[in-house]
Amino acid sequence: MSPLFKIFAACCTCLLACSGVGGFAPSIDIPATTTEPPPTTPDPATLPYFLHHLNATNVTVSRGKAAILDCQVFRLRDRTVSWVRRQGDSIQLLTIGSSTYQNNGRYQLEVEEPNTWRLVVTAAEESDRGHYECQVSSHPPKIKRVHLQVYVPRLEIFDARGEAIQEKFYEVGSSIDLRCDAFHVPRDAVVWSRGGAVVYHSPETGISVETTSGAQGPVSWLRVKAASTADSGNYSCSAAEAEPATVRIQVLEGDTSAAMQHSTNSSSAAHRAVHASVSTIIRLLSLSLVLWVRC
């Protein structure tokens, strides 16, 4: 056998061995493959939800009253309920589970099984205004937003011309007309008094007290017909939980009343004149500065 034939035979044998014909093919380790289970989507029928499916509510309360923020959760199961207060980008944790995380005692948690988690802000102040959230530790988390508005009751007295007053002069025989605008107080809560004594509606004595409903609260009128010097004094309009508004009324004889009224008007006119003069000077200085810059 020639050497060339031997080489050819050896090549054929190698090819047959590699193809697996007439022999065993070499084993190859194939890496094992694992199949991740597809992500599961929570069944909506198992997720918690809030009462009436409301995710946002508003609560309004007067200053000094308790603000009650309700959160009723259904299908809670083993999940946790938390209350937080959101102020801009910061979040303040108030409660988690049945624990309260504030030491000032103004935030209280009331839990009524099986689904009520109530946050109570005692003696609400203006600083308590803002957004609160009831959060449920589900996936995705459930959040109910509550906006708390705290109103401050306020009273202000005006004369018949609609000008806010703290003192007013009347001539003997004229009519005293005072109007009290009450903001965020009940209609029946407004009371007029003079020198600490309540003033009642008494048409037979020429005193009239009438209260109507205004845009932001009650409007109460006090009218005294044919006023005399005995009607002078401090008149106050008051209501529960509001600072009283007081005006000093002076009923004077004709000449004295005119002189006092003229003095008051002259003082007001002088004040307005001074204010106008200052404004004029400021405008002239501004104009001079502009001209100087242009030059």
UniProtKB/TrEMBL annotation:
Q: Which GO terms describe its cellular component?
A: neuron projection membrane
> Where does the signal peptide begin and end?
1-23
Tell me the SUPFAM superfamilies matching this sequence: Immunoglobulin
Task: Identify the keywords attached in UniProt to this record, alphabetized.
Answer: Signal
Q: Which Pfam families match?
A: I-set, Ig_3
Q: Which residues form the Ig-like domain?
A: 42-144, 153-248
Which Gene3D superfamilies would you find in this protein's record?
A: Immunoglobulins (2.60.40.10)
Q: Which GO terms describe its biological process?
A: synapse organization
Q: State the name under which the record lists this protein.
A: Ig-like domain-containing protein
Provenance organism: Scylla paramamosain (Mud crab)
